[in-house]
């Protein structure tokens, strides 16, 4: 009979890709982890991983087992919580957040779950969606639509992208800005596959005849500091820029175009949402309301 321990070992190896890290996460010896995996594969009469030294990669059989094992382990955690008096569900929530959300909204959300085991990954939307597709995350808060059909997306908050300049930039003194004024301007932008970069490339850049040099940085604060130093313009989240606009270190340019965007909750369609995940989603929607 397949045991919970075997499924825990399988899930850990699937997540970390090697026996050593899986053993450390489970507080087991490497030998015990290897033996447990071997016994599981013997019982199922199939290999679950391709041994690509030094990593173990899920094969097609392992990929079929992964969402089932994930659900069983989450349900076991929920059963353990069923009659518990604590308000916050037990278990671990592997949560992803894009940079804007992770840096400027997530701390307020996490403050409502002080006792919960929530492990956060802050990255760009493209990477988070790939991690969700591979069951490496349970849930993510992202800045744009996912293009992966296996993911379920739920609208959350509205955000707006602002055209921003340093206070000493020549365009900062314009009372009425036209698209023609942006021609050949230099830009400071997030990396490709980030939500803000995608919006720039889809909604603003096509309206310009020529886009000037782009300085690419992978941190929102680095982008704003570079803009503050006069290295270019940026298109950035209102949430991220608020403090810098309030203290006068950056200035919003008066362009008569609006760039709204939808922030969303997203998870794998085959993912069993644990009690903790459901509580977190419900709180996010309450926060938005």
Description:
The chain contains eleven helices and eleven strands. It is an alpha/beta fold and 289 residues long. The strands form three sheets. Strands 3, 4, 5, 6, 9, 10 and 11 form a seven-stranded mixed β-sheet that branches. Strands 1-2 form a two-stranded antiparallel ribbon. Strand 1 and strand 2 form a beta hairpin. The longest helix has 22 residues, at 60-81. It is elongated and about 75 Å long. The mean pLDDT is 89.
Q: What's the topology here?
A:
Blueprint: H1 4-16, H2 19-26, H3 30-44, E1 49-52, E2 55-58, H4 60-81, E3 92-97, H5 99-104, H6 106-110, E4 117-122, H7 125-133, E5 139-142, E6 151-166, E7 187-189, H8 195-204, E8 214-216, H9 220-228, E9 234-237, H10 238-246, E10 250-252, E11 259-268, H11 275-288
Parallel strand pairs: 3-4, 3-5, 7-8
Antiparallel strand pairs: 1-2, 5-11, 6-9, 6-10, 6-11
What fraction strand? Answer: 15-25%
Q: What's the total count of β strands? A: 11
Mean pLDDT: 89
Uncertain segments are: none
Question: What would you call the shape?
Answer: elongated
Rg over C-alpha atoms, rounded to the nearest angstrom: 23 Å
Order of helices and strands: HHHEEHEHHEHEEEHEHEHEEH
User: Which structural class matches the secondary elements?
Assistant: alpha/beta
Distance between the termini: 47 Å
